[in-house]
Amino acid sequence: MTLIVLKSKGQLLSGQDFPSMGMSTLKLLKYVLFFFNLLFWFCGCCILGFGIYLLVHNNLGVLFHKLPFLTLGNVLIIVGTIIMVVAFLGCMGSIKENKCLLMSFFVLLLIILLAEVTLAILLFLYEQKLHNYVADGLTESIQRYYSDNSTRAAWDSIQSFLHCCGVNGTNDWIRGPPASCPQGQQIQGCYTKAQLWFHSNFLYIGIITICVCVIQVLGMSFALTLNCQIDKTSQALGL
What we know:
It is a single chain. By secondary structure, the chain is mainly alpha-helical. It has helices spanning 18-57, 72-95, 99-125, 127-143, 149-162, 190-200, 202-236, and strands spanning 4-6, 12-14. A two-stranded antiparallel sheet has the order 1-2. Strand 1 (4-6) and strand 2 form a beta hairpin. The longest helix is centred in the first third of the chain and has 40 residues, at 18-57. The radius of gyration is 26 Å and the shape is elongated. The chain starts with a strand and ends with a helix.
């Protein structure tokens, strides 16, 4: 017996119409999630490409010799690769209506979100230790300026770009400021200037961070909703 449901204006909707409604919802969710992830896949490609460019040309050098892998190029390559992999799973899972890929996409987003929250908590708890570690690492790298080409390239790039000198000021340079230091009496140190910039833009950084987390939660929600809708549509079609 066919199920009859009352609609607005006294119209009738038969049970045979439910599969078509489910298919419409499924297509909408599918293409929203697909284009959502396609955009992020292109962003990941750009970040990866820029990271490879920096790694090949090695213009920025190495600042922290205790962590030689911690360079801007390596960080961008890792971030770009992660974004591309996650976005690829989201694209393929949605367009192919593959539940396994969708759940993999959901799990990876969840792991990334939990990692971001954990990192934020650790940075808050160990802020002073991190501050001391970075300051000591930068001071140590200054001592390598004249003996290590990679360190020299890193400091020259940073001082020229940020218009700063040394860690806390020109006095950090025992042999005198290098040519990459800007001329002037009141030149700020690079670490001091970076801290001031961070504190003055803390609100904007917080807003961007929250937006990223919201986008991740939306992606997870879309993936779960599409996964459930695939089940409902399959049941309605008798598959």
